[in-house]
Fold each of these.
Amino acid sequence: MGPIPFTPFHWGLTLLIQAIAIFLDPIGLFVGSVILDLEGIYSLLFPDSGVPLHGVMHSLIGAFILGIIVGNSSFLTHKLIHRIDFKFDNPTPFTLPPYSLKICLISAFIGTFSHVLLDAFLYDDLQLCYIFPIENPLLNLLSWEVVYFLCIVCFIIGAVILVGRYRTYLTDEDLV
């Protein structure tokens, strides 16, 4: 199987996490879970750049740094969204609550670290500790078929849970 630089399969796990831990910030969680693949996209667009598909961004250090950036960006986005007056009489269950910086950072860290965890099973060029060339202990513990299957299953379970939660916000008249 060839390299896949941007995979929405990461959203399977994050959707399940979001469904279970509904208090988490969805922006930080979902952006954090895929932003690492900008490195792979850049590597494919500019093959002579020397940037590996799974370089520093796909390490624990890169995930931490990107988590800080994504978490802070998400927090600022929420502050901006809440300054805009949309004049809704009845907020929908999709209205974003005012998330704290702590929740935005935790959500972004869960997203970035879950990306590294999933990729660590699959790619031999991924180094968990990029500074030190330590062998990746997770490599090939699960096949790519198993990892992708688990991501699909997580997505389905997470979607069912979220649909169930959404239905509790609606009245019987809204469902007709």
Amino acid sequence: MKIICFARNYIAHAKELQNEVPKEPVLFLKPDTSILLKKQPFFIPDFSTEIHHEIELIVKINKVGKYIDTKFANKYYTEISVGIDFTARDLQAKLAKQGLPWECAKSFDGATVLGKWVNKNQFKDINSLQIKLEKNQEEVQSVNTEKMIRSIDELIAYASKYFTLKIGDILFTGTPAGVGKVNENDVLTGFLEEQEMFNIKVK
């Protein structure tokens, strides 16, 4: 199982980090060892002093596919949720400045939070979903996914040009503006529409 992540898929987020809005999707991978185990807290790693939360709409692939056409991509997933792509922002900035890959800043153990999975058919419009992250019961990130630069189906089609998608693979579709630092004893709660999808404590 692989985790395929897309960066800078919301214009406002690209601008808040002073990045250019990309002409092509920005893609990177995470190993399955980065997944935070259920009911476990997130431990701030000792190699960073600036871990940021990034809530995202996530999708689970349910059939094998390669070179998937965008118009058929909707057939390759039935379950969606929200998750967090934890990022060691200080380490990421250091690596990016040197032109090096980001994996150490985004793929460390525990850096990937997965919310509970729900069937996409319960939603009226899969391309217009409200996602939200609360930190200590205060809203810190919120967006409607219609503001994504590229839709879920476009991201699936793009990823499948490079990687064969397999059952159980997960796509992170990008984070909206509002990313910020997490601190010890913070409680992070993720929502898809009005449904609570995860609740984790930071230690």
Amino acid sequence: MKIICIGRNYTAHIDELKNVRPEEPVVFIKPDSSVLPKQQDFYIPEFSDNVHYEVEVLVKIKKVGKHISKEFAPTYYDEIGLGIDFTARDLQSKLKEKGLPWEKAKGFDGAAVIGEWLPKTDFKDINNLNFKLLKNDEIVQEGNTSFMLWKIDEIIAYVSTFFMLKKGDIIFTGTPAGVGKISPNDYLTGSLEDKELFTIKIK
């Protein structure tokens, strides 16, 4: 199982981090060891003083595919979820300054929260899904998949040009504006169309 992540897929998030809008999807990979085990708290790693939450809509691939066309992309997934791409922002900034890969800032142990999965058939339109993240019962991020620069089916078509997709692979589709720092004793809750899909305690 591999975790394929899309960066800079919401304009407001691009602006808040003062990044340049990309001409094509920004793709990076998290190792399977980055998945936070179910029911486990997230421990802030000792190598970072500025870990950020980034809530994202997730897609689980259900069969093998390569060079998938956009029109056939919907046949490659049946489940939609929600998760967090934890990012060591201070470390990422240093790596970006040197033109180095982001893996140490994005792929460390526990950096990928994967919530519960819902059937795609639960939703009328996957390109119009509301989702949000609460920190200590206050909304810190709100998004809608209609604001993605590249929609889910376009992402699947694009990434399958470079990587063979396999059953169980998970795609993180990008985060909206509102990312921010976590601190010990914070409590994060993620909801998709008002269905709570994960809760995380920060240690």
